[in-house]
From TrEMBL:
Highest rank taxon of the organism: Bacteria
Positions of the UniProt region annotated as Disordered: 349-409
Single GO term (MF): transferase activity
Keywords: Transferase
Keyword match ATP-binding: no
Alphabetical list of InterPro entries matching this protein: CoA-transferase_III_domain (IPR050483), CoA-Trfase_fam_III (IPR003673), CoA-Trfase_III_dom3_sf (IPR044855), CoA-Trfase_III_dom_1_sf (IPR023606)
Broad EC category: transferase
Species per Swiss-Prot/TrEMBL record: Mycolicibacterium austroafricanum
Keyword Transferase: yes
Alphabetized Pfam families for the sequence: CoA_transf_3 (PF02515)
Protein name (database record): CoA transferase
EC number, as in UniProt: 2.8.3.-
Classification of source organism: Bacteria, Bacillati, Actinomycetota, Actinomycetes, Mycobacteriales
Extent of Pro residues compositional bias: 352-369
Amino acid sequence: MPPVPDPPLTGYVVVDLSSGIAGAYCTKLLADGGARVVKVEAPQGDPLRCWSASGAGAESGPGAGAESGPGADGALFSFLACSKHSVVAEPDADGELVDALLAEADAVIWSRGPGMAERPEFAPAEIRNRHPHLTVTAITPFGLEGPWCDRPATEFTLQAWSGGIVGLGRGAPDRAPVYVGGQVGEYLAGAYASAATLASRMRGGAESIDLSMLETAILGLTYYPVSYFEMLGRPWRDARRLTVPGIARAKDGLVDIGCGTAQQWFDLCAMTGHVEWIDEDSPLSITQQANEKADELYAWVADQTVDEIRDLATAFRIPNAPVANGANVETLDHFVQRGSFLVNPRDGFTQPAPPYRMSPATLRPPTPAPRLGEHTEHYRSLSVPRNSIPGRDSSSTTAGNVPRKRVVPPIPRKDSLPLEGLRVVDMTTFWAGPSCTHLLAMLGADVIHVESTRHPDGTRLIAGIPVTEDQWWERSPIFSGLNTNKRGITLNLQSDTGRDLLKKLIATADVVVENFTPRVLESMGLTYDAVRAVKPDVIMARMPGFGLDGPWRDNPAFAYVIEAAAGISWLTGYPDLNPFEPYSVGDPNAGVHAFNAILLALEHRRRTGEGSMVEAAMVDAALNVAAEQVIEYSAYGALLQRAGNRGPTAAPQNLYLTNEIDEFGRDDCWVAIAVATDAHWAGLCQALGRPGWAMVDELATAPGRRAHHDLIDRHLAAWCAERTGDQIVTALWDNGVPVAKVMQPHRQTEIPQLASRGFFEYVQHPVNPTTRHSTLPFRSSRGPDRVHTAPAPLLGEHNREVLAELGVTDDELGRLEVDGVIGTAPAR
């Protein structure tokens, strides 16, 4: 039996100076990849050690599977800190120790928080000045520079600023809109930070990376709203309305059924026995048609069991999923068969398996999270010369429980973009897959997007452009937003000639990415083995919704059913109504996780010469960002619940109406306020003028504020109702309180912080007007100065250019066009 290869990041040393979920999840992904992560903590430890979303953490008594009592850690910390080391450093006394760790490291992950990160000499710029070889990745709410760089924020207020709270119409029209529950923004930021750090490694590191959590929220919670508004002159959605049928109540529970395409709506009509509803010439969108039939659809769902509905929907190829939560998710048959959950190696509760799988490249099996300061004395004992840090030492001996691994030669520093020189065959469609390949393209790879005139990329078809309009298929702002910097070709893969040309293209590629259901490529004979036969060292990244095996593997998957199946939907919405589909997180979250996996596979190839098959299922990525639910239930028996706009991280936390009328003429302007600390509460009291109701002793502590949340809400609602959003934001920010206006997403360009950081760039296009496009959520000291270098390709725009590179002559190109193998317009 051949030996198991070292994980791709073996020998890569990361010092973790972060606190909170975003930094912890970033370094967890790096540790899963094999990196040696040394977590530097203050004597009181990372605040996550004491955290439990249900309040049932280590200090509160025993749970179903987590250790309790003095010195015990919260279960979420135990999950996020798997395979890491812990070093305690006194901020006033241990600067030399931390500098010694940094001198021997490759990267540092930094965020504001207790401990060394509070010291001016350990700010990101100062770390880079003393240790110029490092990649220093900073995770902050708004970025390290710009007019808002020091403003207070929480994930809740960042969701409001991003437009993600109202951007996809989530909520009921007669109530406040609702945020996406479960701290998903923290995990998104962590996944992007990990990807940015790995991409930096691809060009030799030695740079500063400045990641903005506001920008990751925009990319993860909104759907290119600025490009949509500027290109088409209307917002994506201008009102809250239920998705129909969406999440509905069946006889025995909740089920999610969705229609992402017209064909799926037609199939839903047939499935429910209403073929008379099918009207291919209707002037209404499928969403509008479904809303018209809402009562009948809900009645039909209520008369069936969940299993009956799902069996029918699967037969009709309609996206569907059960609505998972912390109590039931690990028992769902698909996840059981796929081994989607693991036992925490230290505390015995249930946690998600890593968000992607690969072979022959391997991930590190999780090892127990460290106790506070468990490795301090070991690291203090190390000598200062380079290669003294475990993970960089060429010795095969061990010190304590810290293994020493073989050193791989470092990557030479290069001045080009991180992925320049890579060629990617992009066989993806809609949002999840193209968002992954878009990251590859924006960081320098030559990405060739393969479509078919029979089946163009689905995002070309969802802009509501009448087919009577000239080149209607080129006018989608969603396609434009996802595909800049790519080249585009068309190939009819139902033909032998098309498949032969695709194989010739793959023979020139480093990476192939696809996100169809597994049966699609298998029916065309394009399995990993077939692709590897063409290019032995190729990396093939497959992004099916539910994975390559298991009973749900062939089910169609859009973001909303992925969110339901993973538990994200369960925490989103009002407590007295069915959950709402976030309708946004599942796709871009899958994209950034797949991007991480591809970078790990590329590192494995650099070390070994081997290609890899990467399986980056959308649902596996979603299970990871929803990890806290199953962890809380299995560790403490606590089932987390949705609570409107309240949440476990702050009290008060809610939305409050201002005295303004919105741009649509409605009394629907809101601010988001989140008091996460006693200092925030003191600031809020000061901003309010220290009213008597707020100065009572019961409100001086977080438990008291949570117990009296209704009272606080009434007073804050009255105060906000007399003021504009700008007045409220100024008053609270001036007193250090996290606050935000609930932005319409197409107004993101009005945020001065985004303008200062150049988050939007104007992109010219041969068919569409010049339009602003979002860029990357991080800035690097090594560039690029401009992200978008070419507009999204026209359908088949680069057929001649790319196929000529494969040796196809002009005469052959003409025959391919006549035969319908290639083309530049959708086939009729």
